[in-house]
Amino acid sequence: MSETNFMQEYPNALYAFTGAFFDELARSGVRHAVFCPGSRSTPLVMTLAKEPRIHLWKQIDERSAAFFALGAAKYLKEPVAVICTSGTAAANFLPAIAEARLSHIPLIIITADRPHELRDCGAPQTINQLHLYGDQVKWFTEAPLPEASNTSLRYIRTLACRAAAESVTSPAGPVHINMPFREPLTPEIDPEFHPEKLDAEAAFGRANNQPYVAVRHAEINSIDASTLAQLTALLNNSQNPLIIAGSQPHPAKHTALLRFAETNSIPVLADPLSGARGVPANCIISGYEIFLRHRPTSKRLNPDLIIRVGDAPVSKIVNQWLETFHTVPHIILDNAFGWNEPSHIESMYIRAQSETVFTQLYASVTSASSLKTEWLQAWQHADEAATNAADSACNTFTDMFEGRLYRELDRLLPDNAIVFAGNSMPIRDTDTFFWRRNRPIEILANRAANGIDGVVSTALGVAAASGKRVYLVIGDVSMYHDMNGLLAAQLNRLPLTALVINNNGGGIFSFLSQTNFPDSFEDLFGTPINLDFQHTAKLYGAQYTFIETWKTLRQALDDPANNTGLVLLEMRTNREQNVIQHREIWKFAHEAIELHSTQERKND
Description:
The protein is α/β, with parallel strands linked by helices. About 45% of the residues lie in helices and about 15% in strands. The longest helix is centred in the last third of the chain and has 29 residues, at about 575-604. The strands form three sheets. Strands 2-1-3-4-6-5 form a six-stranded parallel sheet, with helices on both faces. Strands 9-8-7-10-11-12 form a six-stranded parallel sheet, with helices on one face. The protein has three domains: about 5-210, Thiamin diphosphate (ThDP)-binding fold, Pyr/PP domains (Rossmann fold, 3-Layer(aba) Sandwich); about 225-385, 3-Layer(aba) Sandwich (Rossmann fold); about 400-570, Rossmann fold.
């Protein structure tokens, strides 16, 4: 960049400073940033608006903006920046930051701030933003007040490189930079600014678009010989090994894991967020949420070795069942390099890339015995009996049963579709009813902090980053929490189909012991909100269909008019009836399992 062009782009010290900062973020691989309008953040967004390497997404609501950035980073598996003005605007980022911290999603939080002389003295739109997010962020720093000396520009370039690196270094997560600015905040020409006095690298960065500081990560990929020998001995001596595939920050294709499991006849319980469901492998088990509720089956399927990859499963039933085997060797393979075992029954915790570990094990473990083959078959038979029975039972419910929705979606959605499951009932029903045999569909959710807030915005962030239509399944209360987020679909013309399950309140509470106190249940837990989402669709310019029948759902998903922009489909269900129907499904499936077991014993 010539001196003349430099002055046109950065006409004063403030904009030279912010320009150097975003230049280095771009060189460090940041490709997306989300901002909310505000005054104190003016130099940040006006600089970014001229940065062609970073796509700038506009949001109005700060809470929605942070979740939008979270969704983009979740899909891209790379850092995304999110920017706001000073004051309480920054506080609204916290829920998404908490989710990012626990799910190891790389975010770069940039909060504009008043200068030091305006703090703690009654100046408007000013709060204490230092360490605002506490330990919810991996790293915090406050940038100095901008100036355009060689030292200052080298520093801000280094800081940008470090921020990008810190966000992705395992365990990945959010970082926070607080940036104070004095007025004037706009790019007026400053006659006292002399860029000709600056060193070329301070002003323009390293040659050939290289980052000012090239940060390299040396992650642990493989395990040492001693650990490999221990695992090999455990597996060779095990007759009933079990693998749990949980969610991971960077889900692999599980090629090595599934090759190992198939060769050694090891059942793999595939969590809906693992990326393993839908892969054509005989070892994949996905109906466990149904058949492990059947006491004789859960007692019969006793593992003598458990290996879990990634996070703990979504399923409470699986987690409770696993806790009964606290004396069984329990190995955790953690790709995120964190600590994730809430039941405290682990006997070995390995921080390494699971695909590399299973490649090592494949070469060292002896092939499956006939006993292991029988062990896998026992899981396959329970899985097949339970899912076939549940599928048949779902089809008998002609009214709008929430569980059947996922069976319909399993059949209707195109290959490689992206499904974003809301928390509370949607993710649990996804686990129970969305089996996806041999069909690639990506399932995402915010399952670290498990909040029902920000779900719409996270799904829209995924749509923005992927460029693909996202199918969001969400409850009415969760939709209410983030209706503001729908504006992003309109502002950015994002493709989202939101399927709202409107059971008029908190449906999950109907499955919990709070229902034993009917005098207070509706007021304190059911909390009906009595919303008609047709009005929401109109407000945000969405195509709307009220789903009265399963035929209506099929037609709505097939309608070419619903293949562009924002689509809102509303399905109304009854909370009490939903509980009864779930229990009928489980009962029907358990009867099928018992019948299958009886026939097997007769054949023997």
